Every structure is written in C-alpha cells, then in structure tokens.
Amino acid sequence: MTIFSLEDRSGQIDCVMFNRAYERFYDLLKDGAALVIDGKTEIENAGEDDEKIKFIASKAKTINPKPSSYMMRVRSYSSFHLDAEDMFRESYEDKNGHVLLLFDEAMNEIRELNFKVSEKILAFPNVKEI
Prior knowledge:
2 domains, 3 helices, alpha/beta, about 15% helix
C-alpha cells in the first residue's frame, strides 16, 4: 500500500493505493506526473464537525506522456553530419520517437537533430536517456 497526495487547480486530496493496484501502476506514480486516477472517495468522521475525505485509487494512466530525449556525444558535429547522420536517419528514424540531441565536444555545444529516433539507438554506448 502507498499513500500520496493528488493535486489539481482546485486543491489537494490524500490518496491511498492498495497493493494490487500499486503493483500494477507504481511506475506511473512519479512526483509531478500528469495522471488520470480512477477510484472512489471515502469520508471519515474524525469528530463532531470534522470530516476527512480520502481517495482510494484503483487505476492510473498517464496523460499524453512526453517521450524522453536522448543525448549522444560526438567529437565534432561537422564530422558526424558528413559521415554518419544519413545512416542514423535511415536506421533509427521514428516519427513518433525521441528527440536526439548531439553534444559536440569540439565546440562544447548541444545541437538537436531534425528527426526523431527510436529507442534502439540506446544500444550505442555514447547515447544516454535524459
């Protein structure tokens, strides 16, 4: 079981997710994640005029998850552009994929390629998810 807070523009509510649901959805429960949470509310009477509302979550799903970006270190963007960029496009381009940023070590700057790539590019040791 886990206890966390849900927050939107209208306020905040305590949320409980029991073991079965937590095992299925734990990877989505990250600080700041935009989620749709299904469940039910319960009202606990803590005193005469004191009620506490809590939400018992049973399902979670992400809202428009944004793909992560990848960073690849290259000695020189110029040499990468001349020698390897077309091969990377042919082998790894994926219109719904991830942004690939190149860290040009010679110029000490970051450049974004004009195409997105599949996660298969992570097989290269100089490519990291950011």
